[in-house]
Amino acid sequence: MPPTAARIHEVPDDPLAAIDYCFEQGWTDGLPVVPPDVGRVAAMMAFEGRPAEAVLAAHPATGLECTVHAAAVNAVMAGCKAEYFPVVVAALEAMAEPGFNFHGSTASTGGSAPLLVVSGPVIDDIQMNADVNLFGPGNRANNTIGRAIRLILMNVFQMVPGLSDKSTQGQPAKFSFCIAERQRGNPWPLLVEDLDYPPGVSSVTVFAGGGFCNVENHGGNTPEQVLGSVADAMANYGCITLGQSVVVLAPEHVRIVAGAGWSKAEVREYLFARAARPVDGMRAVGKYRQRDYDRQHGSDAHPLVADAMMHRGLTPDDILVVMGGGDAGGHSCFIPSWSRARSSIMQSKPIGVCIDCD
Fold first, then answer.
1. What is the pLDDT of residue 271?
2. Is pLDDT at 4 greater than 60 in this prediction?
């Protein structure tokens, strides 16, 4: 386990030797980390109002707990600046909600990665990227916040690849999966507004996401054409389940859709109606499981299958729609949920608002 307040390690006064020491202790994700010296950890904790020993999240299967101090140590190792720490804390608190299914989403063969979607003024405050190369490298805040969550999962909660993390194939997002919602040129209310948080508050939404699916449509010039290609990706036989979805629409696509007067609610409704596959087809590929519907509805007479179609999710509200990415390019994306059913539900928390500080 990484160093704690009660377990301080002496290492050579040499940055490269300290990095090697972290590798030797098994504290890394396979890439070099920043050695968590006392000063950097203290600066990180200064951005949190609770004491070092306060518990931010607990793992229900192992009983392991993540304190403010443990989170700060791993945030330092991930390369976070101290001002990023409130985002890390809020994401941990969201993942600790029972509906997220902390253990299953981090240990199963499905290989999910916690996707963090940040919304609100904190994006500009800490210079997160909501623009070009949104899911890619190049931005310290996005990449290190996501990486901090991964290191906490490994070092604090002992979700170690090959041991307790049993991902069949895994995915690159298991290194870091953190994006910012784009506000510039966004014609729709922001996610933080949809969540009804007060003005000036920022939020983070955490989603146990499967692999990234790029949706390319350079030729579509109507909402139906653009969203039809997204819905088809959402309903491909390899991805479709009753689970939730995240759809990140590129600004070029948003301009087409919103320019025709469509709201986000109408986008969700259109996607839900068309992100569906015939029940017979689902049975043919072995993916229709009656017990999944029984668990949700009691019988297959539910309206979702009354027309012999299986939809992705249960209602349009199961689809999170945000805008993100660069101005040019007809590339949006769909991120499927982890699990064959609805084993994890996305959770949101305000950033920097301490709910249980007393």
1. 98
2. no
